Amino acid sequence: MPVKGVSVQGLGLGTARGAVPRARIAVYKVCWLRGGCGGDLTKAVNDAIMDGVDIVSASISEAVSSPRLYIDTTWPSANFNAMRHGVLVSLTAGNKGPGLYRVANTEPWVMTVANSAGSGTDYETYVNLGDGKRFLVAGANPHDTGKTMMPLALGSDVKLPGYNETSARGFTVCRPEEIDPKLAQGKFILCEAVMTVREIFDLVGCAGVLVRSAKPDDMFDQERGRYMSQRRKAPVVILSQQDFQYLLAYYRNATSAGGVATASIEKSVDAPDSKPRAATSSSRGPSKVDINILKPDISAPGVNVIAAMSGDFGPAYDMQTGTSMSCPHASGVAAYIKSFHPDWSPAFVKSAVMTTATPMVPSASNKVYELAYGAGQINPLGALDPGLVYDLQEIDYVKYLCQWSNFNQSAILALSGVRDWECSKLPLEKGWTLNYPSFSIPGVPDQPFVSVFHRTLTNVGNPPTSNYKAIVSAPEGLEIIVEPSVLAFTQNLEKLSYTITIKGLIKKGGDVLSAYLVWTDGRHSVRSPIIAFERPKDIEAIYEEQMEQPHG
User: Fold this and answer.
1) Distance (Å) of CA 95 to CA 31, 216, 225, 301
2) Could you tell me if 105 and 114 are in contact, meaning their C-beta atoms sit under 8 angstroms apart?
3) I want to staple 209 with a disulfide (CB 3.0 to 4.6 A). Which of 74, 157, 236, 364 is the partner?
4) pLDDT attached to residue 548
């Protein structure tokens, strides 16, 4: 049943309803206080298969760094089993952006969902200083604090005795256990850093918290959506590094003269609608397992999402951000497709979601294009009638796994549960030869490359007799040739193949090259992203380096 009047203290007011209102939902408990257990995950997926579930949606991220782990860990194996039984598994890309090589759940038989901001999920929040300065800050604030000016205090000024830790810059790292509620009472606290978002929620007694952004100023716009929660008793907002320096100077000038520095934090208002963009925290590709397969697959709204909460945990609804919020949106689209096409395979559904996605644009400061958002933003209505789809069967994935030297008969049996296949008797599939709805090209920098892909499209459009023409768009540095350039379909489920040749050169240290191929009959547009990027010398080294950095 739709729930009217849902909001977070007035923010995001609207009606809450499911993606497929008449769908039946089966819920399986797999996560506990210390996270999820592999055995519980496997049993839940197997139970879902036995219960006749069509789509499995799991907001769980598991980073697999080697193909061997597809069989050494239970999660990918369970998802493979779901695919074998016609169940599409929709998983999160993870929340370790914006560094590269952090995307999780990279198996080609699952749908990996990134997190997008914008498109109605942005809010504007302003901070006013006592000297008349006004800043646009990040962090939605549901608290109606008005424009009442409150005194400012450094985090170091309101600490309990014995706590005086400062950062390398000489400013305060705020921890809730170090703050004296009596000293913080009625003040806005300035913090250069906080340990975790959850700890911010525990800062009690103060009127609010103003945090210095950890992002460079040219990436500050991507901070929106952080630190938003109705569970907080006071507003928490983020200032750009430049604005925070101004705020700090204002505070010191005012207090050094014996005065009081003051500020107010306004309640957030809806921001002008903006185009979808990749959220900063959303994990980026390429896949560490196989850089020849573009991951993530798709993006969905996941910033400032109003989500139902457990009554024992907090309010009935709260705002949440992350791929745990975006994944259910994409899963809902998949369920929506299955409600119209119950006989479609997981590959059909996933292809429909990807090839009908709304194109996205990268941020000016982080031009990794589809490595951040996959094929683009979900388009539920368009996905119902994709026209053409890229099909993949279980045998295709088995042939793909057989390319890895550590896969043999026992490994395939452990993963698929099928005894009939032996790698020695099968033609091998590489990542670039899989009939995938996207194209990934890792190139040696400053060396010309020629990549040839063979793909097959299945006709699911109406009318079944249609001529599809290939249209390509490529930036400087890429040349794309499609043969044949026209596919003439005469019946439903007919399969026709094409070859796409991509030539180019990737400059060392240069931007990712983003292009696309569209097959169109005038009614349908079947779009596939094409991404070319610099191949690293050592993926393992890059991955470890990225993992040592803060996740943002």
Assistant:
1) 18, 19, 13, 14
2) no
3) 236
4) 38
Q: Are 111 and 374 in contact (CB under 8 A)?
A: no
Task: Say how far residue 456 (Cα) sits from the centre of its chain.
Answer: 28
Q: Residue 240: is its pLDDT beyond 50?
A: yes
Element (H, E) at 183: helix 181-184
| Spatial separation of the C-alpha atoms in residues 494 and 514, rounded to whole Å | 30
Please check whether residue 251 is in contact with residue 262, taking contact to mean a CB–CB distance below 8 angstroms.
no
How many Cα atoms occupy the beta-carbon half-sphere of 202 within 13 Å?
A: 13
R_g of the chain, CA atoms, integer Å: 25
Task: Report whether CATH 3.40.50.200 matches the domain 19-116+282-386.
Answer: yes
Tell me the C-alpha to C-alpha distance, in Å, between residue 186 and each of 7, 233, 302: 27, 12, 33
Q: What string of H, E and C letters represents the secondary structure of 353-392? A: HHHCCECCCCECCECCCHHHHCCCECCHHHHCCCCEEECC
Say what the pLDDT of residue 495 is: 98
Whether domain 123-270 has CATH 3.50.30.30:
yes
pLDDT for position 68? 58
| Burial tier of 43 (Cβ tally within 10 Å: 0-12, 13-18, 19+) | middle
Give the fold, CATH level 3, of 387-392+434-551. Immunoglobulin-like (2.60.40)
Q: Rounded mean pLDDT of the chain?
A: 85
What are the distances in angstroms from CA 468 to CA 354, 367, 442? 18, 31, 29
pLDDT of residue 550: 31
What pLDDT band is residue 107 in, cutting at 50, 70 and 90? very high
Residue 111 pairs in a beta bridge with 90
Q: Given this model, what pLDDT does residue 543 score?
A: 44
Query: Quick one: the chain helix, strand, coil %, rounded to 5?
Result: 25, 30, 45
CA dihedral 535, 539, 545, 546 (to 10 degrees): 70
In terms of average pLDDT, the best of 119-123, 228-232, 361-365 is 119-123
Burial of 177 (0-12, 13-18, 19+ CB in 10 A): exposed
Q: Cα dihedral angle (352, 355, 358, 364), rounded to 10 degrees?
A: 140
Domain boundaries along the sequence of the chain: 19-116+282-386, 123-270, 387-392+434-551
Residue among 495, 491, 485, 499 at smallest CA distance from 466: 491
Q: What is the C-alpha separation between 430 and 436, in angstroms, rounded?
A: 11
